[in-house]
Amino acid sequence: IVKWPGKVKAGSTTGSLVSSIDIAPTILELAKLDPGPTFQGKSILPILSDPNATIRTHAISEHNWHDYEDHSRSVRSERYRYVKNSYTDIPLSPPADAVRSPTYQKMIELFQAGELPREQAICFQVPRAPEEFYDLEADPFEQRNLIDDDQYRSQIDELRSVLAKWTNETGDEVPEQRRPDGFDLLTGERLKNAREQE
């Protein structure tokens, strides 16, 4: 979301891919400063001038330890999204403050009673799929994992390759030893040893 009177037309939208790592290079370009060689992002100024402009063909995202251990990586193209889950033995739990919310507590109650819709029960699924692939044009809410669908083999291989290249370039790796959870997965309460473990 950008507000820039006289530069960005109010109510305009874009389908161009951007990443949070593009924010700093954009601000630095506006300040007429060089972001330097260690910045991975790209300025989004071309998109602000022309919503049809493209600055990237893929965007990478990561999910790491927050309140709970996790290691997932995702690559998104204009139409498709590929996800690699390194820890398939844990559920996709939200942060502890969300776990403590009345909404999530009700979801736990309904899940344990077998009454939670499949679309919402995904955050409790164990084991998680080691890989996921979604056609965002046909399935914008990512409800149908197409990783085993041969019709998408070339697109899956392309995004796997993009992620492997990024992994190599950034030195990203799965930790040899997992960090202990800081909070209980079902209550969201801090575990007694959490402070000592940090």
Describe the structure.
This protein is α+β, with helices and mostly antiparallel strands and 198 residues long. Helices cover 27% and strands 11% of the residues. The protein is built from seven helices and four strands, in the order H-H-E-E-E-H-H-H-E-H-H. The protein has a four-stranded antiparallel sheet, with helices on one face. The longest helix is centred in the C-terminal third of the chain and has 18 residues, at 153-170. The protein is globular, with a radius of gyration of 20 Å. The protein starts with 22 loop residues before the first helix and ends with a helix. The model has no long low-confidence stretch (mean pLDDT 92).
**Series of secondary-structure elements, N-terminal to C-terminal:** HHEEEHHHEHH
Global outline? globular
Overall pLDDT level:
92
Beta-sheet strand percentage?
Answer: 5-15%
Give the proportion of residues in helices.
Answer: 25-40%
Structural class: alpha+beta
Termini Cα gap: 35 Å
The low-confidence runs, each spanning 5 or more residues with pLDDT under 50, are none
Which sheet architecture does the biggest sheet show? 4 strands, antiparallel
Largest beta sheet: strand ordering: 1-2-3-4
Please give the radius of gyration in angstroms.
20 Å
Number of helices: 7
Number of beta-strand segments: 4
